[in-house]
Amino acid sequence: MTPHRPVPSAPYAVPVTGREPFGTRLALVDPEGALVRAPELGAVGPFHPDGDGGLVAPAADLAGRWGYLDGRGRWLDAPGLEWTGAFDGAGLSRFRRAGLFGYADASGAPVVPARFTGAEEFHHGLAAVRTEAAPATRIPRAGW
Fold first, then answer.
1. In angstroms, rounded to a whole number, what is the distance separating the alpha carbons of residues 56 and 107?
2. Scanning 56, 61, 97, 134, which has its CA 20 to 30 A from the CA of 6?
3. What φ, ψ does residue 111 adopt, rounded to 5°?
4. CA angle, corner 108, sides to 103 and 112, nearest 5?
5. Helix (H, G, I), strand (E, B) or coil at 90
6. What one-character-per-residue DSSP string does 25-49 give?
7. Residue 23: what pLDDT?
8. pLDDT per residue as tens digits for the range 42-94
9. Nearest Cα to Cα of residue 115 among 92, 86, 139
10. H helix and E strand count, the chain
11. What is the pTM of this model?
12. Comparing C-alpha atoms, which of 63, 121, 125, 67 is closest to residue 96?
């Protein structure tokens, strides 16, 4: 983590309504109103500091594939997840791949692999998760 590096202002998601079959799409604009990303997103979650002076947010493309955008509106990796959630207080985002949940850090890298049938946000260093074998248990941030 870079100390004392200011985090830039987050871009805003702006809905753009078009004619069918396009419907509503989301564009990203900066605080001055300049276009950051064309209206080619289906969903954008809240931006979160990435720990290195930038920002990251969960987002979906128009085909419904989820991934993570940086503060400039660029995909960290090509979107290919079923769902991604907002970053929690521990700096982790839940994601779903092949029907199972895991946790990713602000770089978009999985830190807890997708192996849970259900998963909640981390609170006080623990997250409630479910598997077929264990209907309810808690895991530490380091995983299980």
1. 8
2. 61
3. -110, -20
4. 25
5. coil
6. EEEEE-TTS-EEEEEEEEEE---EE
7. 83
8. 999 999 999 999 999 999 999 999 999 999 999 999 999 999 999 999 999 99
9. 139
10. 0, 13
11. 0.90
12. 67
